[in-house]
Amino acid sequence: MIVEPIIEVDNLKKYYTDVKAVDGISFQVFPGELFGFLGPNGAGKTTTIKLLTGLARASDGKLRISGIDITKDPKKAQHLIGVVPDESNLYPELSGFDNLVFCASLYGMRSAESQVRAPELLKMFNLADAGHRKFGGYSKGMKRKLTIAAGIIHDPKILFLDEPTTGIDVASARQIRQLIADLHSKGITIFLTTHYIEEAERLCQRIAFIGKGKIIRVDATSDLLQPIKDDHIMAITLDRLPDGIIGKVGKEFPEYRVEPSGNDQLRILAKQPIRVSPLVGFLEAQGAQVLEAFRVRPSLEEIFVKITGLELSEMQNGNQKKAGV
Amino acid sequence: MTSWIAFLNILYKDIRTYYLKPPNISWGIIFPLAWSGMFFIRSGQGMDSIATLLPGLVALSILFGTTSMLAVTVTFEKKNASFDRLLLSPIPLELLMLAKTSGAILFGIFNALVPIIMASFIIDLSGINWFLILPAVILIAAASTFLGLFIAVSVSEVFEAQTFSNFFRFPMIFLCGLFFPIAMLPGFLQPISYALPLTYGADILHGAFGMGNSLAIGLDFLALAAFCVFLFVISLRNVYRKWIV
Q1: How far is B117 from chain A (nearest CA, A)?
Q2: CA A25 to CA A273: how far, in whole Å?
Q3: Residue B14 distance to chain A (closest CA, Å)
Q4: Nearest to B245 among A53, A57, A108 (CB)
Q5: Are the Cβ atoms of A55 and B87 closer than 8 angstroms?
Q6: Within its chain, how far is the Cα of A288 from the centroid?
Q7: Rounded CA gap, B143 and B101, in Å?
Q8: What is the pTM of this model?
Q9: Of A44, A88, B52, B86, which is least packed with CB atoms within 10 Å of its CB?
Q10: In chain B, whose CA is at the least distance from the CA of A108?
Q11: What is the pLDDT, as a whole number, of residue B236?
Q12: What is the pLDDT of residue B1?
């Protein structure tokens, strides 16, 4: 049986006067899938979500949500979708409960129905005790959770989550990741943008890498990881990086690939186990003091760096600036 | 039906979160009260002058009440992105904007009542034509609200909306025949008067308060209705062009 895609994007373009925000992207998302959209700040992730949800108009290309052409009939498609923006945008003067009831009404839900659904969601998101407090007084994590609850109050087929864990504390981020996994297990199709590679790796079944408005690669997470799953990676932190150390290590240990990684750190990559003792001895003989050496689990980050040529630190610095961290 | 549930809830939410807040209630009462008191006292022509001031005071109270509110209910919500939530909902844009403006229209009608109620304690209002006043007040409130909407969707900051509103509001006090006939204005200003919606509203009110109209009542209503449609349509176009980009 052929499964029809629930989101179809074909050669989608969004050009502003002098910027190609989205430049001819194409991909499909299938029902029940948790699809990750991964890219650095300014790559075109939020613009893509705006186009997919009817909050922006495409310059060119085809865009279908559950078979409906959203460029022609956005209101029809908006019945089927829930959107959680990167900034919580509920009403600070209303309580958590009233915000949910109000959001339900925007989708035509009658009061009797939303008065039952809202407490269910407050309980599900661990906000039952805060339901009658004003949204303006919530913590960032609570705000984000309520914004997700508002996004699913009308039981959408597809949920768009734009950077759901950016700018919130670790505990709340963990809770939100669990909630996303729970929602996915209930059959909701989830389109998730994130700059946290480990988040995408843990949650998403398929991932699209986007950079400068173009899709660089779309693949199943397991397929993306396949080429590196047997790799051995070690991070070594030194007190300083002696001149030409990368070349010297490469020459001494030709079976290893050596890369700089952040401040005074080297990454050693190999297809076989890395022998720590000779490596540490060599580095110290070059005048550097080894402060720390630890094994790194091969992750999507390696693939991301390989494909985009963009270091994770660059990407996260950009996003942290955006999140005001 | 689905859209009307959304419409009523947007209106109810706005009334609850904006219009029924103490600062707005006090603004809605104190401002028209202050205008009325000031004009009644300063006119210096005795009690008889109160009836002649009422049309202008009613129109002015509506104009300032309605245009002030849109900066909050629309521009502020757009600024903090909560308006995007409304744009993302399946309610048609026309109905959404009507829902966002209905609260201001009701607020304007409430504003209009303040000088009338105040005057009713001082003078006899039995001679006035309520059947003209009621539709006139509703249409003036709608036209002023849609003028406020046009301003609110043309700017991105609340303070810009307030400033831009004053650019229209204060000249309208003098140009719309509220307190002296348009015929008394210099010739080059008179065409401007007829390009402003309040001119037609004030003319209906003058007739309703027994002071005679300078234009045909039907033409006044038609012009006000045309302004409502024009301002609403151009505001929708601006929302579509500037906010769904």
Answers
A1: 32
A2: 40
A3: 11
A4: A57
A5: yes
A6: 37
A7: 11
A8: 0.84
A9: B52
A10: B2
A11: 96
A12: 65
Amino acid in position A53: T
As a whole number of angstroms, the distance between CA B84 and CA A130 comes to 25
User: Tokens at residue B216, please?
Assistant: 């045909």
Pick the more confident residue, B142 or A310.
B142
CA dihedral sign of residues A167, A168, A169, A170: negative
Give ipTM to 2 decimals.
0.88
Task: Please choose, from the candidates B175, B210, B212, the residue with its C-alpha nearest in 3D space to the C-alpha of residue B60.
Answer: B175
Amino acid at B113: L
* Interface test with chain B among A86, A99, A106, by most B beta carbons within 10 Å: A106
Burial zone of A159 (CB within 10 Å; 0-12 exposed, 13-18 middle, 19+ buried): buried
Task: Check B90 against A79: CB less than 8 A apart.
Answer: yes
Token pair in block for residue A238: 């030194």
Among all chains, which residue has been given the structure tokens 């300032």? B64
Q: Are B54 and B209 in contact (CB under 8 A)?
A: yes
Contact between residue B73 and residue B13 where contact means Cβ atoms under 8 Å apart: no
- Give residue for tokens 């390989």: A306
Q: Are strands A232-238 and A7-15 parallel, antiparallel or unpaired?
A: unpaired
Length of chain B: 245
CA angle (A100 as vertex; A324, A114 as ends), nearest 5: 165
* Average pLDDT, consecutive stretches of 10 residues, N- to C-terminus, chain A (325 residues): 91 92 96 93 91 95 96 93 93 96 96 96 95 96 95 96 90 92 95 88 92 91 80 90 91 91 86 91 93 84 70 50 41
Burial class (CB in 10 A: 0-12, 13-18, 19+), A154: buried
* In the block, residue with structure tokens 């094994």: A295
DSSP annotation of A199 reads H
Q: What is the DSSP string of A140-189?
A: HHHHHHHHHHHHHTT--SEEEEESTTTTS-HHHHHHHHHHHHHHHHTT-E
Dist CA A77 CA A64 (whole Å):
9
**Percent of chain B beyond pLDDT 90?**
53
A208 by DSSP, 3-state: which? Answer: strand
Using an 8 Å Cβ cutoff, are A293 and A235 in contact? yes
For chain A, the straight-line distance linking the first and the last C-alpha, in angstroms and rounded, comes to: 47
Q: Which residues contact B104 (CB under 8 A, 6 or more apart)?
A: B65, B66, B69, B70, B73, B141, B145, B148
The residue among A12, A24, A82 whose CA lies nearest residue A53 is A82
